[in-house]
Design goal:
2 copies of one chain form a homodimer. Chain A has 13 helices and 14 strands. By secondary structure, the first copy, chain A, is an alpha/beta fold. Chain A has a single domain, classed as Rossmann fold, CATH 3.40.50. A 7-stranded parallel β-sheet of chain A has the order 5-2-1-9-10-13-14, sandwiched between helices. A 3-stranded antiparallel β-sheet of chain A has the order 7-6-8. In chain A, helix 4 runs antiparallel to helix 5. Chain A is globular and about 55 Å long. At the A-B interface, helix 3, helix 4 and helix 5 of A face helix 3, helix 4 and helix 5 of B.
Chain lengths: ~300, ~300
């Protein structure tokens, strides 16, 4: 079975890990790059790296970085009065250096990501949504800031007033992305933050068109008991005018999805959401086994 | 007393540490940048960093890097098939990242070095010979290679046939260097490799002229018992046609120095070297105390 997943960071990475654990499943994970940034001159791709490390079984304990990494370099940055809020683990820096140098040498992010995934022995295809510049910008009371400024530097405490995706208008889907969606038997939208993690992927016109044209698109809601497990999805969605609960998730993907998978704790939402099929199951992916169980249910096994 | 020292890496750094330990001594260390290189996109200044770390009391045990550093990043580079022969310690990488970013932002190497030295609490002025590009190139049997290729990648096993200093013709001395030499009561050429570490400094015309014009230039020979403590100075000097022993050191600095300080184990050389004053003493700097003793002798205390 061929499956394509659209993915942000932690939630998407855990969903992908579940799918990758299933036999005879050809998986392509299309990953948000709207959060990508240069930090200390290093090319940072937070969601791509979270997906890579999670599929490699090496994910850090807090939703970023590598398990068991050390922070000698990051700590030392303070000596030079550099902002080290965005924590770069020592082993993780090697990946960043590799990517930075490869991109500087003219390689495409999709090619670099393929090499990185291969170096960790990952069989699934992990592909950035686009090789072109695409930056999620967040308007807060103080004005427009980058995603990293909003999320890391300011600790996602500001109210999100508006989002835009700089570069999206001219960004092309990365090689193979449109074909992968078109030929997939199932497209899964991971339980990631809809506006902040999935909208930047769908902001690439070619990808949005391919998803819209696909007959079997299943979104997994990031809500558990009406709230997100991690990150500010609920607050962001409310601030952007989306209704509360899973109706907001359904609205975030209006016209795109055929099924919405919601958590058992939110089963009341079934009655109020119209026009799409609702599946109620346990969606919390606390460990690899839970991810594999959910994945099996999504693909009908 | 005002003293200027011309310096390469380890030997020069230890000599500088000895001078810095003396009371009421105003020290400027002018450091070779001919070995500077970009490695994995990071701006590497081997001799500047060795001088900084040694004056900070943080020098690594093998003549490079920082004491007690870890190598998680460097080890991990191998996963991406990057050459990690030139070892970058995790804490050391922070300094490299700081310098790389500061230079990319338009700062001069001399200013960056001043900030770095200050961040380690170093009182001596540490100044690169030049802020301009200047690269020591080494001709070996296979052709011209960079210093790092010759020294690190090939382990200084090749015979050195010729040297050249790319960029030296148009390089200006870094700010304050010429003035520091002109106003110094004593100029010391450190016990560094004359062709590979000191010639690149003297290749900057303004610096050579200032040293030539100075009435009190003392070179400390890097030879102990006719051989160098570390590195390939003896072989390099022989290959470049310089006579063996301290005559070769004297010839390497012909027309520039007024005194040559040689080790007690080479006292026989006194008789054969003409035209300059020879001082015989113990020049091996095994520890900070030995460096301070030698420094005191050089400045006449």
């Amino acid at each position: 079975m061929t499956v394509v997943q659209l993915s942000g960071g932690v939630g998407g990475a855990r969903m992908a890990r579940g799918l990758a654990a299933l036999d005879e499943l050809d998986l392509t994970v299309i990953v948000n790059v709207g959060d990508d940034a240069a930090n200390h001159g290093l090319a940072i791709s937070p969601d791509l790296d979270t997906v890579v490390y999670t599929l490699a079984g090496l994910e850090g304990p807090h939703g970023w970085g590598r398990a068991g990494d050390t922070f000698a370099m990051n700590d030392e940055l303070a000596r030079f009065e550099l902002d080290n809020t965005f924590k770069l683990g020592d082993r993780d820096v090697a990946l960043k250096i590799y990517r930075t140098q490869a991109l500087a040498g003219g390689a495409k992010l999709s090619a670099v990501t393929g090499t990185v995934a291969g170096s960790f022995g990952i069989e699934a295809r992990i592909v950035p949504a686009t090789d072109d510049p695409l930056h999620t910008m967040v308007r807060i009371a103080d004005g427009w800031v980058t995603f990293q400024e909003y999320f890391v530097a300011r600790g996602h405490q500001d109210e999100v007033l508006e989002l835009r995706f700089d570069g999206a208008d001219s960004a092309k889907a990365a090689p193979g992305v449109v074909e992968a969606i078109a030929s997939a038997e199932l497209v899964i939208i991971a339980p990631s933050n809809p506006p902040l993690s999935i909208w930047p992927i769908l902001a690439v016109g070619e990808i949005r068109d391919a998803v819209e044209a696909h007959p079997a698109v299943t979104a997994v809601s990031p809500l558990i008991g009406g709230k997100t497990v991690k990150g500010p999805a609920g607050e962001v969605m409310a601030a952007l005018g989306l209704p509360p609960g899973n109706q907001g998730v359904a609205d975030a993907y209006a016209g795109l999805i055929d099924r919405l998978v919601i958590d058992s704790s939110d089963s009341d939402d079934v009655d109020s959401i119209e026009d799409i099929e609702i599946i109620v199951t346990d969606t919390l992916i606390e460990d690899p086994a839970a991810g594999a169980r959910l994945a099996a249910e999504l693909v009908g096994r």
